[in-house]
Design goal:
Layout (H helix, E strand, L loop, with lengths): L21 H33 L6 H27 L18 H9 L2 H29 L5 H20 L4 H54 L5 H29 L2 H6 L1 H10 L5 E6 L6 H22 L4 E8 L2 E8 L13 H10 L3 E5 L6 E8 L7
Parallel strand pairs: 1-2
Antiparallel strand pairs: 2-3, 3-5, 4-5
Length: 394
């Protein structure tokens, strides 16, 4: 099982047959809708774009053209939705238009709108669709009454031309747009993860070390009263000081554990080998750790690798019922690879409530990969990949 599930590459409908199936009826509906949709698109583009171009000699021409292009983007979105619903095309939405911020001024933002390639391709789409819409509407309508037996094959041929047109003019323009859309989604994951970590740290401090320090202050205050009052009670004061000393040690231990959860000192000082060995020593099952790295990766990548293994070994302790486990870390080209295995009961999944889905999202947010193989009865093998970045480089 992989971290993400993608639809099959082949989104073609089944072969056309003389008997009308649901795919054929959807194609017929799409072809009949071509004419009204083409008329709407052509009239919008002809009026808005041509009017704004004609007014470019005035101050309102270019802003009006920018608004017209923004509306064209909306028309393209409607056509993509229609193609997905009726033609079964798996086509992604282009990434939102990003550029200069509001504080950068009106002209840079206007220029960003005017050079939008998605909008201009939609304008071209609306122009070429009018004659095509007239043709497909007429042929389909006539075939419904005259060429009924072969209509499925006629509809399939014209629908395939529609599919090619939508893919060519309305799909994201290139790989860069697809990556931008992915990175925007990943940025949201990173923000949510950081917020969740801050809430966890706040909760741990409030419920743990902070509560103990409050109790410590109260205990020392009572001990001070025992020592400074008229009736000196050294025995009770000594007991209170001894209890306060115990609270101090517990608070220090909790602060150390919290600091280890943020970024352990052993990872900073000695690297992944020592840090992962420390984590493995706390696992309920014996863990063999093998780290084969000639050099250390960037601090951020090293930290993600550490916390990934740490959480996976916690799952081994809590859920796997394993007798043995292993952790292997190595570099392959420009990737850092991590593999965690155990001989437990298996059956782990991304939606099984063990935090696997969260790990997959975190790795995906940094262009990583998370692959889970855990058949019922075991063993479980989890492979994670992270991009390799040199230490000291961002």
């Amino acid at each position: 099982m992989t971290a993400s599930i993608t639809a099959p590459d082949n989104d073609r409908p089944p072969p056309a047959r003389f008997a009308f199936g649901r795919h054929t009826w959807r194609e017929i509906a799409h072809l009949l809708l071509n004419l009204p949709m083409a008329l709407i698109g052509f009239v919008y583009v002809a009026f808005t774009i041509f009017t704004s171009v004609a007014l470019t000699v005035t101050v309102i021409g270019l802003p009006l053209l920018a608004l017209g292009l923004a509306g064209a983007r909306g028309l393209g979105g409607r056509e993509r939705a229609r193609a997905r619903a009726l033609l079964g095309i798996r086509i992604e939405e282009p990434s939102p238009l990003h550029g200069p911020r509001r504080t950068d001024g009106f002209v840079p933002r206007l220029w960003m709108r005017l050079k939008d390639p998605v909008a201009w391709r939609t304008v071209l789409y609306c122009f070429v669709r009018l004659p095509w819409g007239v043709l497909t509407f007429g042929v389909t309508l006539v075939s419904l009454f005259v060429l009924w037996p072969v209509l499925p094959f006629i509809a399939r041929g014209m629908a395939n031309a529609d599919r090619a047109m939508v893919r060519g003019l309305l799909s994201p323009s290139n790989e860069l747009e697809r990556r931008i859309a992915e990175l925007e989604s990943d940025r949201g994951v990173v923000v949510d993860t950081a917020a969740a970590d801050l809430r966890r740290i706040e909760r741990d401090l409030h419920d743990g070390a902070q509560a103990r320090l409050v109790a410590l202050a109260m205990g020392l205050g009572l001990a001070k009263e025992k020592l400074s009052g008229d009736a000196l009670d050294t025995t009770a004061a000594a007991a209170m000081v001894d209890e306060a000393h115990g609270e101090v040690k517990l608070a220090l231990q909790e602060l150390r554990d919290l600091a280890r959860g943020i970024h352990p000192a052993v990872l900073t000082d000695r690297g992944l080998d020592a840090a992962l060995s420390s984590v493995a020593s706390r696992c309920t099952a014996p863990v063999k750790v093998t780290v084969e790295l000639a050099e250390r990766p960037a601090e951020a990548i090293e930290g993600i690798a550490y916390f990934t293994v740490s959480e996976l070994l916690q799952n081994v302790s809590k859920h796997a019922q394993a007798k043995n486990a292993s952790v292997d870390v190595w570099r392959a080209g420009d990737r850092l690879l991590i593999q965690v295995q155990d001989d437990g009961r298996g059956g782990a999944s991304l939606d099984g409530g063990t935090g696997m889905a969260g790990l997959a999202e975190r790795l995906g947010a940094v262009d990583g990969l998370f692959v889970l193989d855990s058949p019922a009865g075991g063993p479980t093998t989890i492979t994670a990949e992270l991009p390799w970045r040199e230490r000291g480089k961002r």
